[in-house]
Amino acid sequence: MVNIEKFHNKFVEIEKFQSTYLILKVENNLFRFDFKNKKEAFLKQKESGKLFFYEQHPLLINHNENNLEVFINSKPENAEAFVQDLKNSIDEITKDWRNWNDYIEINTGIDYLIFLQNIQKGSGKILKAPFSIVENIEKMRSKHHVKIKYFGEKIITPHQLIIINNQFIIVEKFNSV
């Protein structure tokens, strides 16, 4: 059994991939890795490139950390500046690997217009995001004299990521077969 992390920073070729497994060719040897609880994948074609293995990466935040629901409880003095700082706080954690709007519009029950209305009136849900993002927002909120409240527990669930060129896959674990 070979752990996929052994191939970190090595040249590999994607020999075959399906929704549940990946076969890599490394130095003319084939290695199959089954996906345990695949969470996200962007594998489109067979190709060669350097494999990068991660257990910590901005793409993993959405899977390694649970989401907290965030509500605003007071009006910012300058709503536009607050939104820009909120965006910057999210981007600082995600390093632009994720679109900051996704934390407003996906699985929140609100859209961007409602988000803006809630900020302008200083009341209501504004986003749902992993706790490291919420902690970063918490750091900047005092600059705007804003009160926020968040709900949920901070729970970590480790996941793994491999990136080969512009393709990636996130799973709970890559199991060697």
Q: Which short descriptors sum up this protein?
A:
six-stranded antiparallel barrel, 9 strands, 25% helix, 38% strand, 177 residues
Quick summary:
This protein has helices at 61-64, 79-94, 102-105, 112-121, 131-141; strands at residues 10-17, 21-26, 29-42, 48-54, 67-72, 124-130, 148-151, 160-164, 167-176.
Structure description:
The protein is an alpha+beta fold and 177 residues long. The protein is 25% helix and 38% strand. It has helices at 61-64, 79-94, 102-105, 112-121, 131-141, and strands spanning 10-17, 21-26, 29-42, 48-54, 67-72, 124-130, 148-151, 160-164, 167-176. The strands form two sheets. It has a six-stranded antiparallel barrel. The protein has a three-stranded antiparallel beta sheet with strand order 6-5-7. Helix 2 runs antiparallel to helix 5. It is elongated. The N and C termini lie close together (7 Å). 27% of the residues are buried.
Q: H/E order of the elements?
A: EEEEHEHHHEHEEE
**Averaged pLDDT, please?**
96
What's the N-to-C terminus distance?
7 Å
Order of strands, widest sheet: 1-2-3-9-8-4
Low-pLDDT runs: none
> Class by helix and strand content?
alpha+beta
- Can you summarize the main beta sheet? 6 strands, antiparallel, barrel
Radius of gyration over C-alpha positions, nearest whole angstrom: 20 Å
The percent of residues in helical segments reads 25-40%
Strand content: 35-45%
How many β strands by DSSP? 9
Based on Cα principal axes, name the global outline: elongated
Please tally the helical runs, counting DSSP H or I stretches of 4 or more residues: 5
